[in-house]
Amino acid sequence: MGPSRRSLLAGGAALGLLGAVGCSRVSGSGAKDGGNLLERLRSQGTVRLGIAGEIPFGYIDKNGEFTGEAPEIAKVIFKRLGVPKVQPVPTEFGSLIPGLRSQQFDVVSAGMYINPDRCAQVIFSDPDYRMRDAFIVRKGNPKNIHNYEDIVKQKAKMATGTAYAEIGYAEAVGIKQSDMLILPDQLAGLLAVEQGRADVFAGTTVTVHNVVKQRNSRQAEATEPFQAYVDGKPDIGAGGFAFRPEETKLRDAFNIELHKMKKSGELLRIVRPFGFTKEEMTDLTAKELCS
């Protein structure tokens, strides 16, 4: 599936190249004075949202419904902005920024991590969540593993997902990628721990806790969330909505409604069914994350 929403340390250069390719197709209309996309969306009554089919961030469920943490926020905000309908446009994660810039859709609604590489290509809303890591371990956590340093200390076998940022976090403490078990997703990670092929599976706290809960595993459990570090500094994973660089009016109007939802507690109520808790709420800004 290419780089995932979590892929901060891997694939950044490739993403930049993709963005550069998509740039040539961007229309310059409405680029002055913050763009006119919001007015056009109100006239059309529909906004196209780019998603990457990743649970719980943005996906089509088994009933064919468009849902997820980011789309459910978008449905509320765009309705308040005078755009009552949302239309999903599924694509691979690595194609989200090029697709946005070439106007295949209007907004990226995929829980995309905000980082400087991406900020050079698009503009972001302030983040609607901040994510920490967690592990899947054997029931009772017999090796007492709570962070990446513990994996090294216990000489444990680590598994994680394809293109996950967790690969980079582990490498930062001296674990070689060649020593890791790289799996397609968190379900495969849970099975690897249950079957004893890995001592620990590393992922984001929401995806890890969701899969353990959904499977009702009797052999494995999820650890408490923790902050990952790179070069001694916390590597903050916080996601938001992406807009074309010229559409600052739409981004600013979106931010106003998002901040109201944060203040009232409505944001947490919307995302809680997808496994998010108060711990994932944040007051960070896109400006901080872009720098």
TrEMBL record:
The keyword Signal applies. Keywords: Signal. GO terms for molecular function: ectoine binding. It comes from Streptomyces violaceusniger (strain Tu 4113). SMART domains: PBPb (SM00062). Pfam families: SBP_bac_3 (PF00497). It comes from the Bacteria. One of its GO terms (biological process) is ectoine transmembrane transport. Residues 46-278 form the Solute-binding protein family 3/N-terminal domain. InterPro entries: Ectoine_EhuB, Solute-binding_3/MltF_N, TAT_signal. The keyword Repeat does not apply. This is Ectoine/hydroxyectoine ABC transporter solute-binding protein.
